[in-house]
Structures are given as structure tokens and as C-alpha cells.
Amino acid sequence: MMGSQRKGVQSASRLAFAVHVALFASLAVQAPVQAAEKVSSAVKQEFIAFHIPAQPLDKAVLIFAEQAGLQVLFDSQMLQGLKSLALNGDFGVQEGLARLLGGNPVEYRFTGERQVTLTRVSGEHNGALALGTTSVTASEGSNGDWVYQTPSSVAVITREQINKRAPRHAADMLEETAGVYTAVNQRDQGLSVNIRGIQDYGRVNMNVDGMRQNFNVNGHQQRNGVMLIDPEMVSSVEIDKGAQSGMGGAGVLGGIASFNTLQASEFLEDGKEYGGRIRAGSGIGKLGNGTYFNGGGVFAFGNDLGDVLVAYSERHFGDYRTGRQNADNLGVNIRNKNKYREAWTDWLTSEVGDTGSVTRSQMVKFGLNLPNDQRAQFTYLETDSDSADAWTNLNATQDGYDYVRTGKSDINTGNLALDYSYNPDNELIDFKSKLYYVNTQLDRRNAPHKASANSGNAFDGYEDEFRTSTWGFQVENTSRFDFNNYGQLSWNYGLESYQDILKSKNNLVPAENENDLPWVEGADPEGKRTMASLFNNLHYQYSYWLALDAGLRYDRYRLEGKTGMSLWQAQVTPGENGGEVMTSGTTVRNVYFYDSDREEGKFSPTFGIGIKPGVDWLQFYGRWGQGWRPPAVTEVFMTGRPHGGNAPERVYPNPYLKAEENREWEFGLNIFKESLFFNNDRLGVKVAYFDNNIKNFSFLHYGVSLPGSADVVGSGRSAYVNNQAETRFRGVEYQLNYDMGRLYTNLSYTHMIGRNEFCSSGYYMGGAKKRGELIKIIRTPYTRPNGKIGYINTRVTEWLDDPDRNNKIDCGSTMGNAAYMPADRGSLTVGARFLERRLDTGIRFRYSPGNGAGLNEWSYSGIEQAHWPKYSVYDLYASYWPTDTLNITLSLENATDEAYFVAMGDANNLSMARGRTLSGMLEYKF
């Protein structure tokens, strides 16, 4: 799994095998004392690789239960004050448990095929302690408890959390995760993950089962890199924040977002040879609000030899109505409220047009259990999504806004992977490898340009195609060393490599005025980037209170491609005394080609420490690390016209773009406490302060000047450049989860601090020129209409380099989601369980104070649209299991019909979120 081995000793607290905790009395009194008598004939004798450090006994028992696949019954208070022995190696269940307990006054008895009961023996009375009987099942959220015991910034979204409110968009799954943002375009299902203000071009590794999703196509900079993932196919989402030294960390500055898909084992528990689920959901009545069918089916079967999983899902959405309450929060400049008030009201109360989409996904997995603890698995996952592109235009009568379709898009992502693992009875070997291929293709049908025929700007509709193909290879191994009383060491090391190949084509017939060949066909380039990375991590655990880790990775990349640009430059000639001279009024179009093949490498270290100051429930931690991201194909090779006709916009390449480097550190604390206020309740708290400084941050700078010119900067010219100012992303994250069984709550909040300036030389490639001394004036005669002779004076001057302009740094004029720091954002969920916990109900409050202090003074006519208004949104949900196999879920989103949107990009992203929407879901498990 991505995020390396940080779950080494803490992962056991996830309770993945539904460990049950209970208090026992009379049955325990009769338990025999000698371990040799405790072996039940019903328990299969098998050897299991245990990795459990010495620690408080109650936690060690939970880890043992997870690794052994047992159900353990015990009183957690009974084990207070007791410490376990370290258990590392391959043992049978009985021998392993005996070694773990050591000389502690605790006895055990197998009370079922996969169930063991623990009781504490009183040394003074030589008998078992009699305790009252109570039974408590581990709470739903407990399989994410490892997050609150891991000394780094991690988060997990479980399948149970996803199921509570069936997501309409993949971004909905991340709504309650501190430090995570998403730029959502309501018209399509593409997902772009932003971690702590950082996104795009691989700064965040977005992956499905470890397969990188590196597709990008240029729009208006709100999302330079999207992925397709259907929530119906997701088992869990794991977020690792910051630079990483483990698997998946190559070229990463912001973190890793891993979307883990369903496994056959999830449906084949308890010895079942087949199982699955069927889910069907829809909007309800008039409150369905453009929510149509949403669901699918999963079927799995298998045995000791292997398993198969087959899954299919569909998602249908249509035009929807936005919220209408508290619309004053949107300010007066969005959609020109003050200037076109009638049109603004029409925009607010009308449906959002051309937002219909259809997404279909299918997945097949074949797993084969090989001899000697080996396993191979083949995965095929395909997702296809159709949607429309549209702009909002003021109508001719200025009393409303029309949604005008600009194109139709079909994006398809195919994922193929072959996994192999080998985990024999050897502490030095825990081997995993993956070979994968991801192909994402966007087919777009574009509307014609409606300029008049004699304008020279009209062109017919056309189709274009953009494809990103990624080949990847991963291999890693973990070796574990037990030093008994001196702690345990885990060493994770390996290699990851991937190659992105970008291709594009179209059948556009250029307009008459488009004369800047050969790059008229568009701004999306072709090229190839290859990344390879060697990494290793050391994790050291001493007793229960000290955790250390240190990592070092070496990344190397190669960028290959061709690009160019057409420049109108002054025509120069050699001077009589050397140098160059320029004759005023003479220009020539020069074409420059760049055949790039560049290669570079970088070492990046990380270090972390976690300390528990005398109590097991509190941990302080600190981390420091470096990251490195070389430029992507698009940033370097992008060139041409983003729009047709005689539009002045041009995008220029930058073959000299530098790699980004970051240095980050963070301090945090974890709190994880069970039985805090009541028996068997649990509290998890995670707080972190982070500070990420990025050198040479790449941004799209509009208004650049070009080599060989002395003209004024043209606002329509843009290119990717490196920021000469400090680019810093810092803030504080809060995550809290409390569960007492009947009631629970979850709180998350992200507070971003400061803002950034984006500064670069206007002459980003150099080559600034200026006129020098006058050499001569050429008088050229001509005949006037009246027959008299006139003269044209042509000035010939020196043509000199202009170091002042070359070195001048301009700030501002940036285009993209990083133009403004993301706004603070938080959520609070309060829930309650009834009817023996078969009914789960709750309310969720989502809040953002916005980042637009001058919202009413700031003009939305600019290119960047990263300001967003404040909002307060309430959601209600209920989930009921009338039987163990049937579930009914209801969700009322935006219950107060709030008018809001979350901005992370350009004007395309100004479509507001859905208003009040009621939907339901039926699920049948078998």
C-alpha cells in the first residue's frame, strides 16, 4: 500500500478482523491454567508470521488478533498495567499467544474455531478474577484508529464512511478530510486532489491501487491533471501528506492520495466461497434534483487456491437546481449582480444547464494463491464518463444567462495491473511487486466558431483527442529485525519507475486569420517523461514510547519531446563596425524549434520522530523532509493557440524550466484513548502544524515578453515559468473522532496561513533588446498624389542587449489554482445509533469562512478565479439494516438550500453546487 511501512506496529489497531471486546465472569473461572491444555481440536494448526513489538498487553492482544485472524474476548481493564513480550517470527496460534503473554497472570481458552477468551488470574488467590458480563462490539470507525497512533500526517476514508452518504462525485469522499481540497467542475466526474494547497502535474500522486493517474489536458488552469475513479469501486482512500521516502513518493511535493479498490476477500469472510453485493440508488421525487440511477453490483468467489471478483456500476446525473438561500454571500461581482440584477436572479433560480453526465465502470480481478506464501493478482479496471462543456453567457436582452454548449467530452481510463507478493517464513522477506499500464483518453467534439463568414475568424466544428499513457513498475521488500529489549527495526526498500507518454491530434481546419503555423493546432503538446526512483526507509520502535524513522530516495528523470514557436521579430543586419543594427518598421517572422532531451537526478531525505511522554494515549511527533519534482511534458512543451480565429492568446514553451524543490517540516500530536468517559468508548485526536517551502515553483505566467523584442508586454502571451519569490504553504490541521457506541462525532478543520506572490522575469527566456545610438537616417523618396516628391525617413539604430529588462522581475499575472491560498474549511458530524445499532442517523455541518475579504471589491473579470465566498451547509443521513443483508440509506444534502460553490480555478468552475437534494440507496449483501 502507498505510504510505505508507517503502519508497521501501529496498524494492528485498525481491528480489520472485527475484534470484539467483552467482560466475562463465570465461564472464565473454569478455564484451565496450563497452556498445553488449551489447544482446541477445532483450531487449525498453522504458522503465521507475527510482528508485534513489546507494548501494553491490551494493545498487543488486539494486534495479535488481527494478524492471526481471530476473535478475542477479554476485559480491557483486566489487562491494564500489564506489558507483553515481543513476538516476531513464525508460530502457531497457541504458541504465539503463549509467547506474547509471557509470565503475565493471564490465561486463555479457545471457545470456538476462531475465538479465544482471556481471563486474568489473581496471584494472591490462585484463581481467576470474577467480572461482570458485558458485550461490546468494536465501533465502526475503529478500523481507522491507526491514524491517531501514527507519528505523521495520514488520513483514511473507510468504505463505511463512503456508504453513509453515497457520493455523487468522487470529490465527495474527501469532504471530511483535514488538509485535503478538490477543484470540482460540476459538469464532469474528473477528480483533482489538492493537499495543503498543492496540486497538479504530479505534485500529488493520485493513484488507484498504486497505479499513477497522470492524465492532464490544458483547460483554464483550475485542474491540470485529473483522474477517474468510481466511488462504487472504492474500498478505502488513504491520504499521506507531505514529501514521501517510500513507494509512490517519486516526484511528490504535496503527498499521496491512494484509492484502494474492492478485493474479493472483503466478500469471502468466514469461510464463504462466494459473496457480493447489489446497490441501487436514485434521487427521490422533486428533491432528486438531477440525481438519477447510481449503483452497481459486485460478485466474488474463491477458495484456498484463489479468488475472482467482478464488478460493474453506472452513475447518471442531469441538470440540477442550485441553492437559493444566503445568496448575498456570493458578493456582487459574480455574474455581475449589480449591473444585471434581473439576469443574476434568473441565473440563481434557474437550473444549471448542460450538467448531465453518464459514468460506467467495470472491474475484474483474478487472484491466485501460489505455494510457499506467494500470491499473484491480475486487475482490470475501466471507467468511462460522458459529459458536456458549456459557458454561461448573458443573453441578448440582458435579463438572463444562457448555458451555451462549447463541446461534448468522452473520457475513458483503462487500468491494467499484475501484482506479485512473496511473504515466506522469513523475517527478512516481505516482497511486493507490480507492473501496470494506465491509458486515459479524452475525445472532445468542439462547437464551431460563430464569427461571420467574412471576418476571417470562423471555423467549423472539429474533434480532438488527448491521450496519456503511463507504464509503471514497482518492487519493494521489507526486512524486520528484533533486538528484544532494544527494540525492533523495519527496513523498507525498493524501486519504482514510470513513464508518461502524451499524444494529441485533431481535425481542425484553421480559420483564415490563423497564420502562425506550425502550432495552430492547439496548446496540448506531445512528449515523453520517464521517472525512476530508488528508495529506502528505516523504522525503529523502542518499547512503546519511542518511534524513529529515516528515509532517503534518489529520483532521476528524462524528458523527451519537440516543440517550437513562431515569433515576429525586428529584422536586424550586421553593423558596419560590428554588432547589429535595426531598421525601424521592418519585422520578420522567425520559427524556433527545440528538440529537447534532458536528464537530471536528485537525492531527497526524510526524518521523523514520535515520543509518548510517559502515557500510552498521548504522542508528540515531528517530521522534516525534502522533495523534488521535475517539470512535466505539458509545462515544458506546451505551445500554440488555446483559442481559434484571430484571438490574441498564445501559449509559449519553456525548454529551460527548472525542477521544483521543497523543504517541509511539521509538528503534531496524537491522542488515542479508550474507555475515556465510559467503558469501551474511544477518542482519537490529531493536530498538525505544517510548513512547506517550494523553490522554483512552476506557474503559468501571462503577459510574458519574447526574445528579440523591445515591445510592451502582451497580456495574451503566457508560458510556464519558475517563481522567483518564496512559495510557501503552511497551516494547521485538526481531526477529532469520538465514539461511545450509541453516539459518535467527527470533526475536521483546515486553517491555511498567509498568501504567495508569483514573480518572474517578463523575458522568461531572455533576449530582451533595446535601441541604441542612431546610426543614420535613410531618406527614401516617393511621389505624392499631387505629383510632388516626398521623403520617408527610416531610422537605423544600434540593436543592443537590454540587461535591465532581462533582469527585471514582475509579480502578479499568474493564472491557476495557486493564485490564492485555499480557504479554511471544516466539517462536523454528529451521529447516533438505535435499534441495537442497526439504525445509524446523523447530521453533518460543512463550513468555510471563505477567502474573499474583499469579495465585493474584487472583479471576477480576471483570469484567475480562486476567490471563494463563505458558506454553511447542513446534510442529514440515515442508514438502516433491517436484516444482516439488507441496507436502506437516505441522504438529504444541503438541507437548508444554501447558495454556494467551492472555487479552486477559473470561470468554468463557477457553477454552483446542488441545492436541497434527497436521495436513497438500497443495498443487498450475500
TrEMBL record:
Q: Does the keyword Transport apply?
A: yes
Instruction: Cite the Gene3D superfamilies for this sequence.
Output: 3.55.50.30, TonB-dependent receptor, beta-barrel domain, TonB-dependent receptor, plug domain
| Principal location listed in the UniProt entry | membrane
Domain called Secretin/TonB short N-terminal: residue spans: 70-121
The UniProt transmembrane annotation reads none
Q: Which domain of life is it from?
A: Bacteria
Report the leader peptide range.
1-35
Q: Give its localization.
A: Cell outer membrane
Q: Keywords in alphabetical order, please.
A: Cell outer membrane, Ion transport, Iron, Iron transport, Membrane, Signal, TonB box, Transmembrane, Transmembrane beta strand, Transport
Instruction: Name the SMART domains for this protein.
Output: STN
Q: Does the keyword Nucleotidyltransferase apply?
A: no
SUPFAM superfamilies membership: Porins (SSF56935)
Q: How does it sit in the membrane?
A: Multi-pass membrane protein
What does the similarity note say?
A: Belongs to the TonB-dependent receptor family.
Q: What is this protein called?
A: Heme acquisition protein HasR
